[in-house]
Structures are given as structure tokens and as C-alpha cells.
Write a structure and sequence with these properties.
Elements lengths: L8 H4 L6 E9 L15 E8 L14 E6 L4 E6 L4 E3 L3 E2 L12 E5 L4 H17 L2 E3 L4 H10 L4 E4 L6 H13 L15
Parallel strand pairs: 7-8, 7-9
Antiparallel strand pairs: 1-2, 2-3, 3-4, 4-5, 5-6
Helix pairs in contact: 3-4
């Protein structure tokens, strides 16, 4: 992978098994502007697992190693199943323990148009009114990393644009940091 982290992909997996790699080469591309943006939120995400585990585990749970790179802010998030989550040059990360919605910082993605924005906005409005504040970076993967680090207490994406490759590494990193990911049954995924 050519990444500076503690994982040796060749030794992490059984030498006789094939691996799969899920890559999101650029998340947050809308944050790139033709003029200089002081701190754009753009990331790369890589998830790796053994192909054989896809027959015994759900697709998300077959990911054994996840890496997310915050390109312009010099952060590398990583997790290995059962071994916790870290940020390079920082150390172990933990998700928020806050259970009080009145004090919650919630990342929210309203990547919707016209009527859909109104419909989803009406469903989410009571939650957003109750929470302490809301934020959005423009890179869903980096919003997920804010949950993993405890900088957000939650992140809600109601735009139906989250794809499998957006969550593949992020879900593992959040869970290894002690958080949880809930995928709504009405969420649509596409490749």
C-alpha cells in the first residue's frame, strides 16, 4: 500500500488466501476549488480483507484493515480488526461517550435536492434543534473519522449518496474506536 503505518499487509493475511481491496481514491472532491482553499477536506480510503471471509461474514464485517488519509491535514487514521484504531503520530483514538443529546455535536449531511431536502429536513429537524451544534466537512469519510475520534458525537447522512466504499474502512475504524455504525434499512447503496 505504500502507507506509513504499523500494518504489514503481506504478513497480516494468510499467505494462501486472496485479499480484496476497496478504494475510494478521492472523497470530498467538491471541496477542491480553482482558487486556493486554505484547508480542504479531501480524503482517500482503503479497506482490505480476505476474500474467503466474504462467505462467512457480512460484507462490511469482512474488512479486516481500514486506512483513511486526510490528504491536506496530514492525518492517517487506521484500524485492524480486534486491535483498536489509531491516528499516526497521535496514537489510539476513542469515540465519544456522550449520551446527552443536548450536549451532542452532530455532523449532518443533507446532500439532497428540492423536495427530498424538505422531506428529510422535516424528519431530522427535531434532533438538530435539540443538539448543541451541527457540522459538515464536505467529505463523508472525514465526517466519519470525526466520530471515530470523538470530535463528533454522531454523524447522520440522509442524502442517500453514501456508497459502500465510503463506509468500508470508516465503519471498521469507528467500531475499533469504540463507536457504532447503524445503517438504516432504507439506505440505498450503489457501486
Amino acid at each position: 500500500l505504500g502507507l506509513q503505518n504499523d500494518y504489514d499487509i503481506e504478513n497480516e493475511f494468510n499467505a494462501n488466501s486472496a485479499i480484496f481491496v476497496i478504494l475510494d481514491p478521492v472523497d470530498g472532491s467538491d471541496n477542491m476549488r480553482p482558487w486556493r482553499t486554505p484547508s480542504p477536506s479531501v480524503s482517500v480510503s482503503v479497506a482490505v480483507g480476505e476474500i474467503s471471509s466474504l462467505t462467512t461474514r457480512e460484507a462490511f464485517d469482512a474488512v479486516d484493515v481500514g486506512v483513511v488519509i486526510d490528504i491536506f491535514n496530514d492525518r492517517l487514521y487506521s484500524a485492524e480488526r480486534g486491535k483498536g484504531a489509531t491516528v499516526l503520530n497521535f496514537g489510539e483514538i476513542r469515540s465519544s461517550l456522550n449520551e446527552n443529546i443536548d450536549e451532542a455535536i452532530i455532523g449532518a449531511d443533507f446532500d439532497l435536492q428540492k423536495d427530498a431536502f424538505t422531506e428529510v429536513g422535516n424528519r431530522l429537524w427535531p434532533l438538530l434543534q435539540t443538539s448543541k451544534c451541527q457540522r459538515r466537512l464536505g467529505s463523508s469519510i472525514l465526517d466519519f473519522m470525526k466520530v471515530a475520534c470523538g470530535e463528533y458525537d454522531a454523524f447522520c447522512s440522509l442524502g442517500y449518496r453514501i456508497k459502500f466504499h465510503d463506509l468500508a474502512a470508516a465503519k471498521l475504524i469507528i467500531e475499533e474506536a469504540g463507536g457504532m455504525v447503524e445503517i438504516s434499512s432504507d439506505t440505498e447503496y450503489s457501486s
